[in-house]
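Quick start: what a row looks like.
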Amino acid sequence: MPREPKHASNRQAPEIDPEMDDLPLSKRQAAIDGLAPSRNELKQQMQDLQELGEAVASLPVDRLDKLKIDERLRDAIDELRRTRSFEGKRRQIQYIGKLMKHENPEPLREAVASYRVGSATDTLALHQAEYWRDQLLAGDDAMANWVKEYPATDVQQMRSLVRAARKEKLEPGERRGRAFRDLFKLVKDQMQSASGDAAGEDDAPESDLPHDD
């Protein structure tokens, strides 16, 4: 008996999200087979990559130079820095987000996190220096407390700067005088020096540390 012709399957091909055009072929096929993230998950992933790309673009140049990123991404970041218009920046950030799909995101996340921690530490140190400067100018008792914390300070130099800063007569809204700025610099430098010495002691090998006889 002759075989009956096979009827075409009524199964419809899955609808393809236009945004998947940006995905590599293997991922597009996985999406068709139902093995890839949903449309909403893909959009969230793209948004995350765009935000990461924007954070990477905000890193200082010296930190960017240390990152192993594609030349196209680096060129796009440089172009973003040169762009002035809001709309131009918006489009360029979207372009950077697309380029981020070809990068390993983990080292870039680590670089961004490391920079942000360092910036937060620097900001805290700045506030502490401002606090000590204001305390030293507010009253003589602060000098004794300062010397307890930072005994390596040139006390004579600091007293001289404190006296000079207190005598500076400034009009409202006028910038601070030289003695005020020099006092702040001395405070900040002493704090940084003490912080560096403490870090050096923590890193010193055990053989260099004093031992009881």
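That is the whole record. The chain has two domains: 18-103, 119-201. The chain is about 65% helix and 0% strand.
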